[in-house]
Design brief:
Layout: H1 2-12, H2 16-149, H3 154-171
């Protein structure tokens, strides 16, 4: 058993030279890995970090640009709205002026029509008066002819007036 224990101790035991050899191997491995692995990995991580930082800065500048464009578009929309309202106001004012113009023209035409109608009425009135005068003149001439044709006494005179009234009633 002692042999086994010695072998176990020799296998597991700490030997000073083995420890120095292990430390030297560890330092060599560290230097080797640092040169071949750590520096390239660090360089790759730094480049990825730079790419990410560039992407963030591009995204930020894009966002700022988008905000500026949004402000410009909102300003343009506001101006367009103001222009459309101005156009509508001008069109409404032109329509009102045209309406007033049309009403004035219609009033002038109506006044002319009324004036012509009044003139026509006046002419027809004069014509009717002239017709009545002509009729009365004609009747007076007929009466005068009848008076001249016969010698009139009171009874003839009354009969003549009755006959005249009858003729006048028939002609009207």
């Amino acid at each position: 058993m002692r042999v086994v224990l010695d072998q176990f101790e020799a296998f597991v035991g700490v030997n000073f030279f083995t420890m120095i050899f292990a430390w030297i191997n560890l330092v060599i491995l560290y230097v080797f890995l640092k040169k071949l692995l750590f520096k390239p990995v660090k360089k790759m991580i730094d480049s990825r970090q730079q790419e990410i930082d560039d992407m963030y800065s591009e995204a930020e500048s894009s966002r700022e640009s988008a905000n500026e464009m949004k402000a410009e578009y909102e300003e343009k929309i506001a101006k367009a709205n103001e222009e459309s309202e101005d156009i509508l106001r001008r069109a409404q004012r032109r329509a009102e002026l045209r309406e007033e113009e049309i009403l004035k023209e219609a009033n002038v035409k109506a006044a002319r029509v009324l004036e012509r109608a009044e003139e026509q009425i006046e002419l027809e009135k004069k014509q009717a008066i002239n017709d009545v005068k002509d009729e009365v003149s004609s009747i007076a001439i007929d009466i005068a002819e009848a008076v001249i044709e016969r010698d009139i006494n009171k009874a003839d005179h009354d009969a003549l007036i009755d006959e005249f009234i009858d003729k006048l009633g028939e002609s009207v």
